[in-house]
Amino acid sequence: MKHTTNRKVVAVVIGTRPEAIKLSPVIQALRERADVFKVKLIVTAQHREMIDQVLPIFNIKPDFDLNVMKRDQNLHGLTASILTKIKEVFGVISPSIVLVQGDTTTTFASALAAFYDKIPVGHVEAGLRTHVRYYPFPEEMNRKLVSALATFHFAPTERAADALRKEGIDGRDIFVTGNTVVDALHQVVISNNKESRFPFLDGKDKIVLVTAHRRENLNGGLKLICQSIKDLLKIEQDAVVVFPLHLNPKVQQVVRKNLSNHKRVFLCEPLDYRSFISVMRRVQLILTDSGGIQEEAPSIGVPVVVLRNETERVEAIESGLVAIAGLDPKEIVEKSLQFLKKPPENVMNNSNPYGDGKASRRIVSILLKLANTGKLD
């Protein structure tokens, strides 16, 4: 493909594993239009090990690595570090637009830095809201702040777009694209082999996958989640639990203390994305406080019990594949038993509200139009 000399520099910023998963298909789609766009990937490494697992799957390497991760780093220091370091990169590459995704500290700090330099910001997965200030923390406020800073808003669903319009954002700057997580999921499922590290799962028909790591669940909530798992296994005598542990030492300490001696709970280190999807496809139920899993699991027909009091992924709840249980062990067990005893129909086979796997191409098509109309100059 012929490259022109006046290509638009698109700075894509990634800090965590979910951002890497959801922006990798966008980077791939941008690279297919190398006649118009020159992609520069900036990795903050807010989550070092977990982001390094993802990028090779999509054959992507960073152009700049800010390496901001420090042990026991607080939000104040992380924000300041990203803000300062990314400004230097912007000065080197002079981007026409900065693409950020979701709701992390990397997303917020990068959008703020771009705003300070008067660079347009494109926000992928814009418009998700719980409408509760501190839940999830700090993600809910990060989302709202990035929406105020962003120039273009790539909403995954009509509900998300409507939330942005209600906040006064010009509808001409809002584009409903679908969620790029479905694009990534399609790629991995197509190329996926059976995960062989868990032979003890063979022949099991009641496998529960658990993930938990949210900040708001660390102060007592995680212990309640562990209690819920033990209570569930008392009732479901033939069920087993797979629990990949987040690298956060606070998570590891609580979970290992409460569950390491249980014979039907299998604790393991974080799984790479391909392995995680492989395990996800084998289980009958997922308990999680994650946001992205609420999109991924229903997309392949696996029901989810959400270990949070609020969710910004309302579409999956409406489908019947996701239920909110909060942190009440009784409620968690009750919702889990409902799904295990009567698995819901996969209603998303024909109408997944999170998209059809073409969100990344839609985003690039929109960027092409913006470039052609001079809005990225």
Fill in the keyword field for this structure.
377 residues; alpha/beta; Rossmann fold; 13 strands; seven-stranded parallel beta sheet
SS-based class: alpha/beta
Query: How many separate domains?
Result: 2
What is the straight-line distance between the termini? 23 Å
- Residue share in helix: 40-55%
Q: Tell me how many strands there are.
A: 13
Overall geometry comes to globular
State the assembly state of the protein chains.
single chain
SSE series: EHEHEHEHEHEHEHEHEHEHEHEHEHH
Describe the structure.
- The protein has 377 residues and is of the alpha/beta class.
- It has two domains: 8-178 and 357-372, Rossmann fold; 197-341, Glycogen Phosphorylase B (Rossmann fold), CATH 3.40.50.
- It is built from 14 helices and 13 strands.
- The protein has helices at 17-31, 48-54, 75-93, 105-116, 139-149, 158-166, 180-191, 221-235, 249-259, 273-280, 293-299, 314-319, 329-341, 359-372; strands at 8-14, 37-43, 64-65, 97-101, 121-124, 152-155, 174-176, 207-211, 240-244, 265-268, 285-288, 304-306, 322-324.
- The strands form two sheets. A seven-stranded parallel beta sheet has the order 3-2-1-4-5-6-7, sandwiched between helices. A six-stranded parallel beta sheet has the order 10-9-8-11-12-13, with helices on both faces.
- Helix 9 (249-259) links the parallel strand 9 (240-244) and strand 10 (265-268).
- Helix 8 (221-235) runs parallel beside helix 9 (249-259).
